[in-house]
Design goal:
Elements lengths: L2 E7 L5 H4 L4 H29 L11 E9 L5 H7 L1 H11 L10 E3 L3 E4 L7 E8 L3
Parallel strand pairs: 2-3, 2-4
Antiparallel strand pairs: 1-5, 2-5
Amino acid sequence: MTHLVIWIPGAPESPNRWRARNTRGRMRETKTQREKAQMCAIKARFEAEVARPGIQTVFHGPTRIRFELRRVRLLDDDNAVASVKHYRDGITKAVLPLGDGPGTPYRWEPVVQIRVGRKAEEGVFVEIEEEDA
């Protein structure tokens, strides 16, 4: 069973803060988040392939994807889901070639939030695990 762990440093902002920006500012922010997640996924994929040659790091079959949002201040549930949307898009582009639509074999778990201390590192922890068919 294939297992990939991705760490994306820096907690995403609440989507409520994006409303204050103009359209170009929102587009720039979403692109930055998507590319950051994609680069972190590519790095994790490369490290997994170097550590265990021959491992499959692109997922085509039944797969479970779990997000942990680690922040000092927790968001309400709707904002937590919306704040990781662009990370989800970047990870999908890097390691989930079938996309993130409803007809894919991927199972997206609800976003879990974990409160961390003020001096702890904030970020998004993503775990992708291939399930038995």
